[in-house]
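REQUEST
  id: r-88c1
  op: predict_structure
  target: Two-component system response-regulator
  payload:
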Amino acid sequence: MRIVIAEDDPLLREGLALLLRAESLDVVATAGTPDDALKAIDEHTPDVAILDVRMPPTHTDEGIVAAVEARRRHPDLAVLVLSAYVEQTFATELLTGGVRKLGYLLKERVGRVEEFLDALRRVAEGGTAIDPEVVAQLFTRSREDSRLERLSPREREVLALMAEGLGNTAIAERLVVTDGAVHKHIRSIFAKLDLSPADQVDRRVAAVLRYLDDVRRRG
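RESPONSE
  id: r-88c1
  status: 200
  body:
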């Protein structure tokens, strides 16, 4: 696994690099600014880019902007975003580009090495790793959402695979059904969750967030 790390804190940047190299992972470049991160990604075409949300010069959304741009240039790039705390607007902006090969973790997870490495590998393999606290704040409700109870067992199975970052064809292969059947299930999921095509947030992302939030509540 080839990795680029973009983090403006030199101690955390080098600490991450040492941790990953100790796990026999190939850190091909590190960067302290968004521009340097994009240059490194263009040059090395890594499997995964790990980016901090807040980077120079303004320490606001530079990391998210860089992540979105990196995915635009390299659609198959896996991206794992790290943040000191939940950035609701920025997280939503990133998620609207799709959930495949995408992770959004709070930095405190890095200290839990096994959790962090598991999230990194999951994202690199095409899945999704969204911090439970990020899900909670992106999808806060005053009561539990009963709309998920409307889903059939097969629809929940499809939604769970969507949450893993699988596309329709991969879901069809996993469930041994046709692409058309998966498409029909997903249309039904959107309808039962009251997700309209006019919604500003991508319906697939919104459905996955509801599923993840339900898992968090039950866990």
